[in-house]
Amino acid sequence: MSTGRSVAALVSLSLIAAACASGSAEIANGPLTLTVGAYTTPREAYREIIPAFVRDWKQQTGQTITFEESYLGSGAQARAIAGGFEADLAALSLEPDLETLVKAGLVAPDWKASALGGGMVTQSIVVIAVRPGNPKNIKNWDDLRRPGIKVLTPNPRTSGGAMWNLSAIYGAALRGATSAPAGDSAAAESLMRGILANVAIMDKGARESILTFESGVGDAAITYENEVLVSRKAGKLMDYVIPPATILIENPIAVVDGYAERHGATKAAQGFVNFLSTPTAQRLYAEHGLRPVHDSVAAEYRSKFPEVPGLFTIRDIGDWPRVTQVLLAPGGVFERASTRTAATK
Q1: Residue 273 included in any domain
Q2: Which among 179, 223, 220 is positioned nearest to 199, based on CA atoms?
């Protein structure tokens, strides 16, 4: 090839590369769909938060974003994403479900640094939903094992909310806030067994469980505080009891890097995570019963969310790996309590 032709060829290749680069930039800033894999509880909140983000992102970047949303029990959602459901974002109920995606190589190990509150974008507490006026006079965890009390709680094998429920009961017992002596794991297990003996239905998720309660089944439902507040906002009649000791629910979100990178969606997905920590998003969460992690917004909504003197965190009863092992491992507290309960029925 002559020198002239070589130069011409190189120029042509350069032009093609530039065109491709330009096209990539256009594609990167072109319309994009983000897929969110979430647990069931904050569905109503996201119906308002997502449009707010879409408007904000369009104003900031000029890019048009649309969303596809999937809602399942947290554990089931984590397994779906790990199994190939290509969500760009995972908004789950509890940390161990996100760690499932870290172990699968889909979420970065430092995901906690990606959002306000150590990766947690909302909080709630575990409460006991009761019928209007609390006709069964339920005041604490011990009351849920009284004869004749029909209890609802979701299945911890599929629901993050159920795992929070078990942790609340077991932790309250270990901390001496029930009839079980403080630190007595056998007595805490006995309390769990008594409550499980009264469980009428175990739905697959927290939302399904509260819908079953709304339909008239049961005297009490162990649930997120915000589930009751959402039901009330929709005109459903129910009250709730905050036990003398209960657990602080902390809900995480993270970009599913393994899928978002493949979709060219990493920047927008991280933008959504960042948006969830803003006062705008935190207020929308609060309007739907979730306790804000943003301090100034939490102060605005202090009158809506009662203080809980006996509030504790998962860290007060061990870390998640230890609590999960004790409660849910084969042969653990839940299995033993359930087996013995079934044997006596």
Answers
A1: yes
A2: 220
Range of the domain at 325: 123-249+307-344
Q: What is the 3-state secondary structure (H, E, C) of the chain?
A: CCHHHHHHHHHHHHHHHHHHHHHHHHHHCCCEEEEEEEECCCHHHHHHHHHHHHHHHHHHHCCCEEEEEEEECHHHHHHHHHCCCCCCEEECCCHHHHHHHHHCCCCCCCHHHHCCCCCEEEEEEEEEEECCCCCCCCCCHHHHHCCCCCEECCCCCCCHHHHHHHHHHHHHHHCCCCCCCCCCHHHHHHHHHHHHHCEEECCCCHHHHHHHHHCCCCCEEEEEHHHHHHHHHCCCCCEEECCCCEEEEEEEEEECHHHHHHHCCHHHHHHHHHHHCCHHHHHHHHHCCCEECCHHHHHHCCCCCCCCCCEECCCECECHHHHHHHHHCCCCHHHHHHHHHHHHC
Q: What is the CA radius of gyration of the chain?
A: 24
The total number of residues written for the chain in this structure: 345
Q: What is the pTM of this model?
A: 0.86
Query: pLDDT tens digit string along 286-325?
Result: 999 999 999 999 999 999 998 898 999 999 998 899 999 9
134 and 148 co-located in one domain: yes
Residue 121 burial (CB count, 10 A): 27
Token digits of residue 170: 């077991």
Same domain, 214 and 274: no
Give tens-digit pLDDT for 31-63.
999 999 999 889 999 999 999 999 999 999 999
User: Exposed (0-12), middle (13-18) or buried (19+): which is 334, by Cβ within 10 Å?
Assistant: buried
